[in-house]
Amino acid sequence: MRRLLFLNGIKAFEAAARSGSFAAAGAELNVSAAAVSRMVHLLEERLGVALFERKANRLVTTAAGRAYQNGLTPIFDALASLTAQVTAPSSVRVLTIGVGPTFAMKWLIPRLADFRKQEPDIDVRITTGGAAVPFGEDWSCGIKLGDGEWPGLIAEPLFAADLLPVCTPRLAGALKRPGDLKGPTLLRVAHSPDDWPSWLEAAGTARITARGPEFEFYGQALQAAVDGLGIAMGIRPYIDDDLAAGRLVAPFALSVPKGMRWYLVYRGFSTAQRDFAAFRRWIVRAAAEPATRRKGLRHAG
C-alpha cells in the first residue's frame, strides 16, 4: 500500500526549497509564511530528518533536503502537466518550445513548416530568451547550448557547435589567409567574448584582436555580416542556410569546436506525452540530416 506522509507539508517544503524562502512559498500557496514554516517543521518531525538549516536571512537546504527537493519537483511538475492534459479540451494540442532568439530565427522557424505538415493538429508556440534563461514551467521542451548538465532535466544532444568566420563574397575576396583579418572588421557577440580569440589562436594569428562592432545576439552579428558590415564568427547550425543560399561564405576551412553542444532539453515525464514525442522524433531526425549544402564554403589558399 502506498504510504504518503503529510502532503500539505511536502508541498510546502518543495515550494520553500525551490523558491528559497517561506514568504515566497506562502505567496505561491496562498498561505502565510508562518503557516509554511509550521508545515515544514511538522514534516521534519514526522520524517525525523532536518530539511533546512535556518539562517538569519535565508533558508539553506540540508543534504537530505536537497535530495528530497530534487525528487519532489519533477513529481509536482508531472502532476501539473497531467492535470493540464486531463482538463484541457480534447481538441487543444499545444507544444511550447523554449529557444534562444537566434536559434529560433536561423534554424527552427525555417523548418517548422515541415513539422506542421506532419503534425497539423499541434499548436506550436515558441518562447525565446537568452542562453541563461531557466527552463520554463510551461515549456514542453527547450533547445539549449551548454554542457548537457541541467539538474532535473534530460538533455539529448542535437548538434555540435563549431565556430568559423563568415562574411559576404565581396569581403571574402580580400581574405587569402587568416593573417589578412583585421581587428576592426571582426564583428563580436557580447555574451561570447571567447569565440574570436579561440579561432584566431587555432589559426595561428593570436596577435589579431577583434575590435569590431559588438552585438547582443549571434543573429544580429550574422545579419550585419550579410549586410557587409564585417566578418562575423559563425556558429553551427546558425550559418548553414546562409552558406547554402550564398548570402555568406566561409573564407577559411578551419572550424573550431566551441566546447559546447546543442541539446533538446525536457523533463523525464514528457516522453509519455504524444505531442512532445512527435516533436522529439522530428527534431532528432532533422538534426541528424546532413548539413545544408554548403555551396558558400570555400577553402583558404
From TrEMBL:
Gene3D superfamilies to which the protein is assigned, alphabetical: Periplasmic binding protein-like II, Winged helix-like DNA-binding domain superfamily/Winged helix DNA-binding domain
Keyword entries, A-Z: DNA-binding, Transcription, Transcription regulation
One of the GO biological process terms: DNA-templated transcription
InterPro entries in UniProt: LysR-type_TF_proteobact-type, LysR_HTH_N, LysR_subst-bd, WH-like_DNA-bd_sf, WH_DNA-bd_sf
Domain named HTH lysR-type: residues: 7-62
Keyword Transcription regulation in annotation: yes
Origin: domain of life: Bacteria
Presence of the UniProt keyword DNA-binding in the record: yes
A GO MF term: sequence-specific DNA binding
Family: Belongs to the LysR transcriptional regulatory family.
Function: NodD regulates the expression of the nodABCFE genes which encode other nodulation proteins. NodD is also a negative regulator of its own expression. Binds flavonoids as inducers.
Protein name: LysR family transcriptional regulator
